[in-house]
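Sample 1 of the test manifest.
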Amino acid sequence: MNMKAQGKVHKYGDNVDTDVIIPARYLNTADHKELASHCMEDIDIDFVKKVNKGDIMVAEANFGCGSSREHAPIAIKESGISCVIAKTFARIFYRNAINIGLPIIECPQAAENISDGDEVEIDFDSGVITNKTKGETYKGQPFPEFIKNIINKNGLLNSIKG
Amino acid sequence: MGMTMTQKVLAAHAGLDSVKAGDLIMADLDMVLGNDITSPVAINEFNKAGFDSVFDGSKISMVMDHFAPNKDIKAATQCKQCRDFCSELGVKNFFDVGDMGVEHAILPEKGLVAPGDLVIGADSHTCTYGALGAFSTGVGSTDMAAGMATGKAWFKVPSALKFNITGKLNKWVSGKDVILHIIGMIGVDGALYKSMEFSGEGLKNLTMEDRLCMANMAIEAGAKNGIFAVDEVTLDFVKDKVSKEFKVYESDADAEYEKVYNIDLSQIKPTVSFPHLPENAKTFDEFGDIKIDQVVIGSCTNGRIEDLRAAAEILKGKTVAKGVRCIVIPATQKIYLQAMEEGLLKIFIDARCAVSTPTCGPCLGGHMGILAKGERAVATTNRNFVGRMGHPESEVYLASPAVAAASAVTGKISQPSEIM
């Protein structure tokens, strides 16, 4: 695998919970496009208008805390986001993102230094994050082999089918 | 180095003699759970991957509780999809309107979780069953789909925090106050990726309701699981519910803990978590008058019989304050019936409370008690995030059933001692 992502950053703070990523009032559907149309609505009403395919989401600590709703990473992925970088992720969100194939990467240094609107490139193999706007690089934690295998096989269900 | 009880349960289910924090393992599952919101996503993934059978229909539970009784056509469609799937693939533990309850109340009640079990559920509050000495944790719908197909899931073995419990709770103080206090102390990511293990000589003074409530909210500190040492209270609870053989695991004396916290139950005061994070825990000496519009007593956290008894004791012969709506939701049909037989429902209705059939309903802003812009609720639920119970500019204050009931009477956030 040599996966890369590059795009413009949408920046958020600590404890972005799954209720603001996709409010429960929209969970009466599992339709990916409909979920994406309400992504981040309660924290950033303009997100769906300004997000472009390939953009990157960056947040501080405990991103994705709260409910186990897989609708949250689904909504983010379907909205066009190519990777989420955070200082730390809540564990269920971390699992769900891997299982559905939304690349995520933990990097406190990147979360601290990247600003809203920066142009950023991520190399998932090495964990290196390049901030093209600021001319800085940060070293994130690459996935362990076990998890790389799930991602390489395009998600958990494909990986268990062998 | 010894193992914690969580590590022992994981090792046993992975067929290993021992595991240590950080190990990645594949483990056998005793129960796979989903609800009417998360199961449809799992069923879609299950079908898309081409599976046509489940690993064991008796080890899968689906509970129609979040938007049930169906709140709208889309919710009805989701419940129907679950109903059809369970019927076609032989999923035994399907709980529908009429016999359902809030998932984390009904599974222990029906004896579907035993000490030493390994449980995953596509609902973050699946950690509730740690109260019984099981390893149980919330996962997403894809994990649920994989679990239903193979009976297995992957885990990273967690490290642990130990909470050494001593002493005894004072009147009007419950497990809810203890866990809000703990989350206030360690923060919403204070136990991120870790186990929260509760043990110590004070455990005997915590009822099963207290323990289920505390384990339920382990996720609100970011924990992978909450788990209680198994004792007489546990064995007494499961004895006429669990029919299968089970194994009790104990942490080794030399098990490793990242940190040990001492919790003296006698020092815990009524505690309220302010918007918009469960870690914003305050005691009554830290705030003044806060007027409220709604009270919700129920949920997988606090909808059990002991919770309803505490609320009824306070509401008996009193009336809900003018301008306040108080909604009481027994967590299962059995609890509902018991509350009726004990006369609790009459107390609630005489006090001008609305009593609802079991549902998660307002806890997640689904239905049965949504807040308008600017409105404020005291709830015995588990989350107070932005927009959790309705409008993004509404507020939820988390509290015990006793504090919620007292607040309903006064119309402001109140502790029971103010009116009792």
